[in-house]
Amino acid sequence: MTPHNKAATSSGERLNQYFSLLSSTASWKEILEELFLVSREDFIFDNLVIYQTDFETGSLDVLFAKSTGRGKSAEADASWGESLANKVIHENRMIFEEPGGEGLKDRLAYPYILGIPITPEVKLPGVLVFIRFGGPTFSDEDCRYAQWTANLTTSIVRKKLLDEFMSKIENIQSVTKLQADFISTISHELRSPLGFIKGYTTTLLRTDTNWDRETQKDFLEIIERETNNLTDLIEDLLDSSRLQSGQMKFDFHLVRIDSLIRDEVNRVHLTNPEQKIELDFESDIPAIEGDPRKLAQVFDNLLSNARKYASDALLIIKLFKEKKHLIIEFIDCGPGIPKIYQPRIFTRFFRVPEQSMKAHGTGLGLFICKQIVENHEGTISVSSSQTGTIFRISLPFTLAARKITAEESV
Ligand code: ATP
Ligand code: MG
Question: Are 250 and 404 a contacting pair, CB within 8 Å?
């Protein structure tokens, strides 16, 4: 906002000042500040308060208060106009109250109060209250001027309400979109294992065919695998909502991260012997405080992501110390994650659109990883280009906020 010019201003210039205020892109608070600075040149007051009905609670709250002197803070003075404001709302008209006697000695004890209704929204009435301590009384011309200022105030408060409504609508839209995406992802993820289970069960139950034992075993193995997928999916959903609401319980021990990663890699090799993984661990890696099961879940998701989205590429896992932190890096030479999607990669249910057809997933894995790492007072970040992706985890050797529950090494 441009600084206000204190020199005498013609009525044309004044009008121009008011209109440029109304079209200003500054915040509603800055516009109100400027409005009352300008209007005080023509209309004297000590304090003013804007009371506005709150959209959610329906109560009359102080939206804005300004004190132009007389030794009191604007907030403390806001109570001067409270009962008058309620009366103005109730009667929906301008009301003027003046004290009995003259406040020559203690001006603060003699408030002249003028309240004018403002109605930025029909259901959200408000009041603009002006106070003059010790007079002079408000003349007819003052009242006209106050009404004109109240009209401008109404437009500015309306702008504020509209901005708030807009941001609420945007929030609702993004939540609705997230829910719609969630329902379509989950339906797809539920349907595909259920399809396998139903298909192979029906096949096994057919009375017109006798399956040999080997084939029966193959079919049952598929049914078991798909049932496990369903269980994992439901576990992920439960974990993500427990983590989101802070209900997840952590069981901290002294953990050897090097052994934990080796165990996970060995487990992966049993089911996916073709996945190329190289370990590059610094020697003398100390045990750190952590929940071994939850950390294993983090490594498991990063291993499974590398398998799904960088399938033929080599994955290098680095482990090294950096000051008081342990750094774990998962480096793959896959196709990478486009830059525009990188900031959203740790958000619940987010999947890169171009990759979502490549492999099954719900977009919960990295969200869960981030929550788990942050519960260890650590960080997880991604850097990615067309030649590969690096997920970097930093975990403190010891936790500042939490105590480990058992002094045992895992
Ligand atoms: P879930 O882990 O819940 O089964 P998901 O693997 O799709 O599903 P995340 O692990 O959260 O979910 O990963 C989010 C998205 O990030 C993935 O869908 C994929 O698009 C992208 N992504 C993750 N890791 C890699 C990677 N190493 N290379 C390329 N893209 C990746
Ligand atoms: Mg994943």
Answer: no
